[in-house]
From TrEMBL, chains A, B:
Heterotetramer of two alpha and two beta chains. The gene is argJ. Its main location: cytoplasm. This is Arginine biosynthesis bifunctional protein ArgJ. Coiled coil: none annotated. It comes from Crossiella cryophila. Catalyzes two activities which are involved in the cyclic version of arginine biosynthesis: the synthesis of N-acetylglutamate from glutamate and acetyl-CoA as the acetyl donor, and of ornithine by transacetylation between N(2)-acetylornithine and glutamate.
Length: 398, 398
């Protein structure tokens, strides 16, 4: 079986690499800046199987409520996404705006609105300029295409504070592909950075298998990225299968390829987290179970004292130990080892090798925590807490 | 009944305001800087009732393990506290150091070591310089005194990155008093800021009542301060009763006075949080119960996107709504109102009054969240997330 870690997706390719998909992204006037702000991805079939994961935030944006509802049929013909406005905390009128957007896309495609997913990202609490979006749908529909340029345009239309578009695709040796794009920088964080992603495949996969594969891939990729613990009102990931390759992959192979593409997108999100100067992998091993390992890794990844120390290139294991101790998991401090960039600075809960041996001057930092309690393990991807993070997030909406 | 909110403690008085207590603080060489680093508080009785609360962190410093053990007898004759070293993650040898410190204090006082509380604060993972601490106990014992100077010296000896000593005292009209000092800037946060506090009273209070009163006071004061979610390995609060006034207060009156002094200390901690430029009160009302209200207030208080917005004087209610939604409580977004400095910027989960009406240019910010679900309420005190926070916490140990 192929391991997802051994697969290297192509980041010059994206959402139209799988057969059966067209896409486009344009500036239609939602953003005052004139930057691209509307993306459309269309599944030309023959199949139209879909799966999705959504924010766990109880304050859900209108497009999330819409997309969750239509996804109950596990079929999507298209996804329309706008940047420049989150359409969150906009009440019943905001929901009508999402509905009207879906109806418009359905009309131009000649299908039903229940086959259209809707995503939005931007400032919370403002209504969308529907006088821009409705004619914008006509324009973006007219621009639909396949190929590298179309994939890139689709990835660009969803950008907010992202500094670059994020996409990836991978074609299995048997001939089927997975592609996709993403935007954001964490599960909300920083700034207004809703995480939106559309992934596509031309593999023949039934709805149950597609859903299962998506959840398996997301668990170790998007859901293991934690820049600052935020969870946006708008986070959405939709996976569409056209079945256009006519090929039915081995389920494990499909998960491996899907995970590889999702991991590439996740790493691109991590690298583009606003203000980040360090890219940090927190790995916890030896927990009672995987869930406790992930909980520990998350608390460490979100701890501001740990994050500021890493910004200062300081292997301050005392702060890491403090964060582990407050994570609420089953532990024994005398069994805990902490290694930073390969140097075991804490051994058996006490000072280990000299902290000056740990070189944190580069951009990549590996924090490895061994609890010695069981076989549970998990890795969480995060960043440091820098001056630029504070600057970009304090200056955003004012 | 007196409300604790109406009582104004005297911050030029402190731990020796109640009769029966002597204190001292000196520089004995634990800190390389030559600043004060050893404090001793002695209860001369006639009673020696004690209560305490400790960190919930599972990684506990040696002095915490020691003090938790001896406090089982609910009697303390003295508390010895050092700054300049946390004695955390130091293994069995570190525990022996705490034990030896207690034995030395017991010897000079002619009592048993089980009557001596021990507290430490400073960098994690380093052994204490016992060659400084043991003779230091003789010096600080020789300096024991009553009065304003002695109280201030005791409050000064525990300072780490604190910019000023923190103390308060209040004498009830009936003639009994409560006093105390504290150090730190949150429950760990920021920096190495362990929260240590010793409080004293000359009221006659039995052990059960003292413990109950302490927990009631702490819940709405120290445990409602949340600078960055940290929980130190060393957090300790010890309350000692000498009974020297001979007066037995009404239990509710005692809680009110104790709470007033604890609140004064808490506000001093909040005001001295490193890097803070804004002092924020997050109040949640209308939750299902008080516990859910506190959970919501904590998540909002710890949210980096909220904290950076407040640093930028930005009433960004969308981020507050996002934090409420991810707090895991029972809610309905259409019932949620959010007011910032008195302006209801979010009403029924949607945009309310114009955000430009909310003036956040001052140092004090009031965030008031109404959930409309029940009668639960809670207030949490926090600060913003500023450049200085990042600077001070990234530059500390390297």
């Amino acid at each position: 079986m192929t391991s997802s870690e051994d697969l290297v997706p192509d980041i010059s390719a994206g959402v139209t690499t799988p057969a059966g998909f067209r896409a486009a992204g344009l500036a239609v006037g939602v953003k005052a800046s004139g930057n691209p702000d509307l993306t459309l991805v269309v599944n030309d079939g023959p199949a139209e199987v879909a799966a999705g994961v959504f924010t766990t935030n109880q304050v859900k944006a209108a497009p999330v409520l819409w997309s969750q509802e239509v996804l109950k049929q596990r079929r999507l013909r298209a996804v329309v996404l706008n940047s420049g406005g989150a359409n969150a905390c906009t009440g019943p009128e905001g929901f009508q705006d999402s509905h009207a957007t879906a109806e418009k896309v359905a009309a131009v495609l000649g299908v039903g609105a229940v086959e259209i997913g809707v995503c939005s990202t931007g400032l919370i609490g403002e209504r969308l300029p529907m006088d821009k979006i409705i004619p914008g749908v006509d324009a973006v529909h007219a621009a639909l295409a396949r190929g590298a340029e179309a994939s890139l345009a689709a990835a660009t239309g969803v950008m907010t504070t992202d500094s670059k578009p994020k996409q990836a695709a991978l074609t299995h040796a048997d001939g089927w592909s997975v592609g996709g794009f993403a935007k954001g920088a964490g599960m909300c964080a920083p700034n207004m950075a809703t995480m939106l992603s559309v992934m596509t495949t031309d593999a023949v996969v039934d709805a149950d298998s597609l859903d299962k594969a998506l959840r398996a891939a997301v668990d170790v990729t998007f859901n293991s990225l934690d820049v600052d613990g935020g969870t946006s009102t708008n986070d959405t990931l939709l996976l569409l299968s056209s079945g256009a390759s006519g090929l039915s992959p081995d389920p494990a192979e499909f998960v491996a390829v899907l995970t590889a593409v999702a991991r590439s997108l996740t790493r691109q999100l991590q690298r583009d987290a606003e203000g980040a100067t360090k890219y940090v992998e927190v790995t916890v091993v030896g927990a009672i179970d995987d869930e406790q390992a992930k909980q520990t890794a998350r608390v460490v990844a979100e701890d501001n004292l740990v994050k500021t120390a890493l910004f200062g290139s300081d292997p301050n294991w005392g702060r890491i130990a403090m964060a582990v101790g407050r994570s609420g998991i089953t532990m024994d401090q005398s069994r805990m080892d902490i290694a930073v960039n390969g140097v075991t600075v804490c051994r058996n809960g006490m000072r280990g090798d000299d902290r000056s041996l740990a070189d944190l001057s580069g951009t990549d930092i590996d924090v490895h925590i061994s609890l010695g309690m069981g076989a549970g393990r998990s890795t969480v991807y995060t960043t440091d807490l820098s001056h630029d993070y504070v600057e970009e997030n304090s200056a955003y909406s004012s």
